[in-house]
# Entry
Amino acid sequence: MKYFNSKIVCGVLSMLTLLGTTSCGDDFLEEEAGHKYTDALLETQDGALAMAAGLYANIRWHFGYEWAYGITLYGCDEFTNGADLTSEPWNTYDNRLNPLDCTTALGAANKNCPAVSGLWDQMYYGISTANLIISKADNVTNEDARNKALGEAHFLRGYNYYRLFCQYGAVTLETEPANGTVKKNYTRATEEETLNLIIEDFEAAYNLLPTKKWRGNGTWTKYTAAHFLAKALLYRQSERCASWASKYEKNADLNRVISLCDEVIAACPLAPDYWDLYAKWTGIDCPNEGLDEILMAAEHNLDNTTQGRYGNRTYNYFDPQFSNFSGGWVQRGQYIGGMDFQRCRPTEYTYSVFDNVNDARMWKTFKTVYGLNNITKFRTEKDKDGKDISVYDRESVASQNGITVDQVPDLGDEGIIFILNKKSDKRFDGNPYGTFGRGGDAHSFVNPLTKKWVPNAFVAFQDGKYILNTYTGNPKTSNVFCGINKTADGTRTGEKGDAHRDVIMARTGETYLVKAEAQVRLGKYQDAISTVNVLRARGQWKQGEDRSYYTDGSMAFLKADGGKEDNSTAAAPSVKKNKNKDGEVLNNTQAYYASMTHTNTYYLSTGIAKTTAASDLQIKSYTQLPEEDEAVLSKIGATSDYDRMLNFIFNERTRELLGEWNRWDELARTGLLVKRAKAFNPEAAPNVQDRHMYRPIPQKFIDTLQNEDGSNLSDAEKKAWQNPGY
# Structure
């Protein structure tokens, strides 16, 4: 699918030209075609399907820049900002998060701060295109083609309005194509009207779309629509709609949610192993991108229309800033699947909510070891011929850090480790294995399992206190943290090159949690536990599994390590001129093998004896929740069965869906945003208020509105358009 260009008029996107529409088929991302919109195009089977294929490009916008995490993950309980403050207002809820787009002149750290108008503009552009297809679909005589095109148009319109509704609440509803006209007089619908249109669109898509991925991977199907229809109905019975939803029969909505979820679960089963979804990504269009569990994804590959301005930039956001703090021992490059832009720093809650012994999802999500890929300490000596040569200065490393020479590490040893232990862990109190620290500071930690000094060694808890955010001196802007691997991509051909992997937007793992929440809302708490236990069963260690093994999408860099093919830069010198112990510059393949150790800190973090036994995550009763959950419930004061179980579902959402682009929407929906942000996000806590469960309506849209007679809106009329508190 080619991306279509947009023209923004009065804050609403009008569809004037559609570029790069395609025919249907397995390679519909890469077809070469271009058509200007005409009625004739929409009156043919191929034309209608080509126009509908263009709709898919609209969803790639979500992952093309800083807004990917700013509007979905910031300001919640799971992530806070690192030292980079590009999107800080979205996390801290300070006065820069207001109806104006935050520019450097208005206090943004740089020009990349996500604009409050970004989602608004882009969603209305997609809506305008969908309206065009819906309005002309009756002209297509072939019923199968008509239904497919209509189903996709209704789905995208419903999805885009869903995203708008989640963020802004009530919005203006446009269901007719703009046809090139400029409109300045709009009516803001009610929340009820907005959500009901969303439900109608998802219902239409559910009835029209095929069950098969007829276009290939990424195709929206009946089950994609069913998943989002279930989410929309659940939304109607959620706390944010409580003031008006009583007219809709609660049991009918929630039982329909469960029925829809069961349909999805039966047709689109879970992947056998949690690894398969994210970590075992072997390259562009690899088999795991076609897993039945994936219900919706923003597709990316080598086609140039899936790169550039709307390419996949998500690999930038989850790694710590190791190139800054590691003392040079760990250098970045395309052979490491992520860039160290350190935007999304997990909170203490996020590390603590996992059972670090029994939940394999933790160790298949967090990257706890970076291999030492650059020797930094050299001295000059004479070789036998009297020439100056560089020699790894082990003695200097040893003396500076209070260790012995035989404890000094080599290339491929641990360069950075994160020990994800528990607050109750006493093993590191008193520093029996030496002091922790980053590469630029003298410290003496020697891993008791490897007997080697680690240039960058960080423990989450020591002396009963959370200290992972203290290693750079300012807990509010730390660039030291253990990040997640769900976006790692070893196919990048430049250090800052585009990623090529799809971005999962919905999957059956979430469908289980939607079903479980509906059961909680019906008071069927034990049924909800049974539903969640299916996910937890997949998350358990399997018999014979190596708990110390690690991999991620970096593996796509080399065929010999599991990738589909060698990266085209594999033989090139490493960008940062990484050196081995003889002072020779590594090529990217050598740097990859030094970096990707395929190990984690499981045994160091847990302190248990080595085992290959299966683990058990099953919960027997809703009255006996895991200790990790009880700690969370105690912190936020959840005591009733309903509050306990609703928050349990959100704890499980973290364990299953961490970083998967919808946390803010879900917390705002349930009224849990403020309480959980205050409890678990120290940077959001001082400012977050109830008004922040809605985003401000973009001022640039409001300022261009006119009355029906063509007069400008008064200040009072403009204020009436705005969400309360802004």
